[in-house]
Design goal:
The protein is an alpha/beta fold. It has two domains: 183 residues, Rossmann fold (3-Layer(aba) Sandwich); 157 residues, 3-Layer(aba) Sandwich (Rossmann fold), CATH 3.40.50. The chain starts with 8 loop residues before the first strand and ends with a helix. The protein is globular, with a radius of gyration of 22 Å. Helix 1 packs across helix 9 and helix 4 runs parallel beside helix 11. The strands form four sheets. The protein has a seven-stranded mixed β-sheet with strand order 12-11-10-13-14-15-16, sandwiched between helices. A five-stranded parallel β-sheet has the order 1-4-7-8-9, with helices on both faces. The protein has a two-stranded antiparallel ribbon with strand order 2-3. The chain is 30% helix and 25% strand. Strand 14, helix 7 and strand 15 form a beta-alpha-beta unit. The model has no long low-confidence stretch (mean pLDDT 90).
């Protein structure tokens, strides 16, 4: 605390991020405890998210933000948030969560000293580029936040980081949970063999190759790749269906496999890869992912775990996880609240976060 803060810190954790916001606040209280009595009882700013009976809404701040360094937390993937509309219960989608971010910025009325949006799952991150006559949703959303006066945007494992080119004058930070995931992985797995002759990292497609290469480099392992051969003549669920996964890499017989990806949606790709690896006589199959969405439920994961095709799935709490997922024997939750609290602490003191974003050294120390 030798550095002077940019401004008094304030955290606005929207309904979608309440649980994570409370954990972050607790860690910040510990970090800033200096016995001077200057640390507030909480950094959280009370808000009220109001919905009218026809679905319209507004956000009301319960206290002033004048001169404060404000951090807005929002999980646009939290589908558990509901409200009453025309007498029925409606689940909030990404569009409504993003609208609430804009409502918060509007409610502040330009009185905050600096506004930072922490959106772990980047809004419309999967619609980051145009192919033919289609919308550029992610780029438009970032530009909208810039026009509203947002100074910084922090997100995790963005589908394509090049989308930040849409806002070249805005501070956009793409963070990765690699260190926290590997720390949890090493702590939880007793029968772990991190050795080039006994373990291999797997990229589920060409798009995830850079991510898998990073894991393999810090763990000192070889890498394998699955190429998704798709049927480009039709579109199902917004994407071309996969015909077959073609494997490129060394023999995996008797080896453990760590499959790396940015997100699990329905899980079909993971299931196909697990079956292909088991056909090649792989021993154990672990999955490490930043976001576990489980868009089609977890019944297949329970089935595959019961059949011994998947041993464990590691994912962060950066987006909503149902209680049934957290309690599943095959799932391990990676808590990112302390990491986010440290990031916010550094940024508020105008310190460089480079030591926190370079995980290679810390992972080497763990190993």
């Amino acid at each position: 605390m030798n550095s002077m803060p940019y401004g008094q810190m304030g955290i606005i954790a929207l309904q979608s991020c309440k649980e994570l916001g409370i954990k972050i606040d607790n860690y910040l209280q510990e970090m800033r405890q200096d016995n001077s009595g200057n640390v507030p009882k909480t950094f959280l700013i009370s808000t009220e998210e109001i919905r009218f009976s026809n679905g319209e809404g507004k956000v009301k701040l319960e206290e002033t933000v004048r001169g404060k360094d404000i951090y807005i937390l929002c999980d646009i993937g939290n589908y558990s948030c509901t409200y009453k509309m025309y007498g029925f219960t409606n689940h909030m989608g990404p569009d409504e969560h993003f609208q609430d971010i804009k409502r918060v910025v509007s409610a502040m009325g330009g009185k905050a000293r600096r506004v930072t949006v922490i959106m772990p799952l980047l809004y419309e991150g999967r619609q980051h580029r145009r192919k033919g006559r289609e919308s550029l949703d992610c780029a438009m959303a970032l530009q909208e936040l810039e026009r509203l006066g947002v100074n910084d945007i922090y997100s995790f494992d963005v589908h394509d980081p090049n989308v930040q080119n849409a806002v070249p004058l805005l501070s956009f930070q793409n963070l990765y949970p690699t260190h926290e995931i590997i720390k949890k992985f090493i702590t939880e797995e007793e029968d772990l063999r991190i050795d080039k002759s006994k373990m291999i990292t797997i990229s589920p497609d060409t798009g995830a190759m850079d991510r898998a290469i990073y894991y393999s480099s810090v763990l000192g392992l070889d890498i394998g790749l699955f190429y998704k051969r798709r049927d480009h003549s039709e579109v199902i669920g917004g994407k071309n269906p996969i015909i077959q996964h073609e494997y490129i890499g060394r023999d995996v017989e008797g080896m453990d496999a760590l499959v790396i990806d940015d997100m699990i949606a329905s899980g079909e790709s993971i299931f196909d890869i697990a079956k292909e690896l088991k056909k090649r006589k792989a021993r154990k199959i672990y999955v490490a992912t930043t976001f576990a969405l489980f868009t089609e439920g977890i019944s297949k994961f329970n089935k595959y775990y019961g059949e011994g095709l998947i041993d464990r799935v590691y994912s962060t709490n950066l987006t909503y996880l149902p209680e049934e997922v957290r309690k599943s024997p095959w799932f391990k939750e990676v808590d990112m609240s302390q990491y986010l609290a440290t990031i916010m602490h550094y940024v508020n003191l105008d310190k460089s976060i480079s030591p926190l974003t370079n995980a290679a050294k810390m992972i080497k120390e763990i190993l």
